[in-house]
Amino acid sequence: MVDNLTTEKKLQNYLDEIEKHDKRNNCINAFIYLNPHAIKQAKEIDKKIKEGIAKSLAGKILAIKSPICVKGLLTSCGSKTLRNYKAPYNAEIIDRLLNEDAIIIGMANMDEFASGSSGETSYFGPTKNPKALELIPGGSSSGPAAAVAANFCDIAIGTDTGGSIRNPASHCGLVGLKPTYSLVSRYGLIDLAMSTDTIGPLTKNVHDAAKILKVISGKDNKDAICQKNIEINLKKIEETPHDITIGILDFKIPNKNIQKLIDDQIEKAIKKYEWKTKKIKIDKIDLAIETYYPIIYVEAFSGTRKLDGRRFGEKIENSCGPEFLRRILGGEEISLAEHGGQYYRKAQNARQIIENEFKNAFKKCDFIICPTVPRLPHKIGGQITVKEMYAYDVLTVPFSLARVPCISIPAGEIDSIPVGMQIACNQFEDEKMLQIARCFEKLNE
Amino acid sequence: MANEFLNRKLTEKEKEGIKKQAKEIMDNFASKLSEIKKRKKETISEKEFERKEGINNKNFIDKEIMFQNAPNKNEDFIIAEKKKW
After folding, report:
1. pLDDT for res B38
2. What is the chain A residue with the closest CA to B69?
3. Is A193's pLDDT higher than 60?
4. Is B16 on the interface with A (CB under 8 A)?
5. Taking 50 as the threshold, does the pLDDT of residue A43 lie above it?
6. Topology (CATH) of A239-288+343-443
7. In what order do the strands lie in the sheet with A276-280?
8. Per-position b or e across A188-201, b if 16+ CB within 10 A of its CB
9. ipTM value of the model?
């Protein structure tokens, strides 16, 4: 029994909600594919619970973003080219979640190949924001965020390259965690950009995010960069740390109401916990978007060379939508030998500077705080320029470039639309970051 | 003006336009990055590690599903080339 319900009953309730509101009524469109074996698996978990041998995620129902391979399930990346692709093996994180008795309810919608900040670029159609149906839920983990916010599941697993977990978590009123780069194995993740891709949870609270990170993080020999174990102690996360210096990011955003919500939360924390503050300036942060996209364009182009229509799917250039095509054609162009790597090299140079700036900043403060997204979400299908779309990630991209852990937690609402605040710590301080996020969460309980 | 982001089938003319636009965006970004002159000293040190190879039985690739995904195949192999390259 979990939450007074059996896992099977809980799963059935979620499936009923999905039946009512995912493709009909509210038409959230959070899911691309439901797991046909979920009920059978839930019965097995209930048996384990009864026998007292169930593990830490027994009773938890999870949605999985669609670039993460789940054996036998549709792993489409929200794309036409992989619309019929079933993964022939499990991603490492899926094995770890299943080993802890989690149930996978289905594969969630997403921006095509994780290329978008709005949830509109999917071949399977846009996802709606359950908190404001006419608005975008954010992206690219649009389906995972919408699935949790619409109460279609307990937890979702998303991916974050430049803000793709944190951005939709902010717009949908959830907790969204991007771990330190390389802390979670990417084995079995269909990549967007190998130098910044991460996998993390979207949850209803900080505790669940910590619980998932504890399960999925740690060394994996199948991912060459994933070689470190860190401790995630769930009891320690409940403790309040003392002698803390808050780093307030010196970055002006046009929406003053959003900044005020974050400032109010900081004020409350200072009063309750007696934490100190320091303003943190990051040199070249204003060039983070200009730094990020050349890297993403080149790595997306490189990563899609496998999508040539021979072993699976269709040739990517013949089947993708406008935003992903922009990235791969742009990546192809700037990778040409005649440019001598000038675009990519310039971007890597700037990235190095930004990464070093963050390293120095974390010597002066324990964590950095700022809004997650600088604006409120736009209407689905509304006119928005490429630059405006890329600017959604202006506050998430810098931390991705620096490969540090970040978490977005709810800060409040403006006109009933959720707004998130972002907390970032130094590399591999994921546990400390969760502890601080929990302190902010407790302010509003 | 068509929405820049909603997924749809693109005409050849639209594809040409997108290619041109992508180059313009990259040129614009590169020009802003040109303001950065000096490369700062790198601080990352890559730790060496020994990779353990071997087959994990739980993670074997399911050949049946792999063959279902392939558009061109024979009885026991995927046809990859066939003058398409």
Report:
1. 58
2. A312
3. yes
4. no
5. yes
6. Amidase signature (AS) enzymes (3.90.1300)
7. A31-34, A103-108, A61-65, A155-160, A198-203, A175-178, A406-414, A417-424, A367-371, A245-249, A276-280
8. bbbbbbebbbbbbb
9. 0.88
Strand A198-203 and strand A367-371: pairing?
unpaired
**pLDDT digits 0-9 by tens, A46-101:** 999 999 999 999 999 999 999 999 999 999 999 999 999 999 999 999 999 999 99
Instruction: Name the least confident of A71-75, A148-152, A409-413, B78-82.
Output: B78-82
Helix (H, G, I), strand (E, B) or coil at A267: helix
**For residues A339-368, average pLDDT:** 93
B14, B60, B78 member nearest A311 (Cβ):
B78
Q: Is A441 helix (H, G, I), strand (E, B) or coil?
A: helix
Q: Is the peptide bond before A140 cis (omega within 30 degrees of 0)?
A: yes
Q: Pinpoint the residues of chain A covered by CATH 3.90.1300.10.
A: 7-216, 239-288+343-443
**What is the sign, positive or negative, of the torsion defined by CA atoms of A167, A172, A173, A176?**
negative
Query: Which contiguous run of DSSP H or E holds residue A277?
Result: strand A276-280
Residue A222 token pair: 């199948």
Within 6-65 of A, beta carbons closer than 8 Å to B belong to none
Residues of A320-355 as b/e, b for ≥16 C-beta within 10 angstroms?
Answer: bbbbbbbbbbbbbbbbeeeeeeebbebbbbbbbbbb
Of A41, A431, A9, give the one whose Cα is nearest residue A237. Answer: A431
> Does residue B83 register a pLDDT over 90?
no
Tokens 């007074």, residue? Answer: A4
Is A400 considered catalytic here? no
pLDDT, residue A4, reads 80
In whole angstroms, give the CA distance from residue A11 to residue A239.
33
Residue of A nearest to B36 (CA): A350
How far is it, in rounded angstroms, from Cα A325 to Cα B18?
7
pLDDT of residue B43: 46
Which distant-in-sequence residues (6+ apart) come within 8 Å of B46 by Cβ? none
A35 has pLDDT over 70: yes
Whether A140 is a known active-site residue: answer yes
- Which CATH architecture fits A7-216? Alpha-Beta Complex (3.90)
The average confidence (pLDDT) of chain A is 96
Q: Do the chains contact at B3 and A120, CB–CB below 8 Å?
A: yes
Region A145-173 average pLDDT:
98
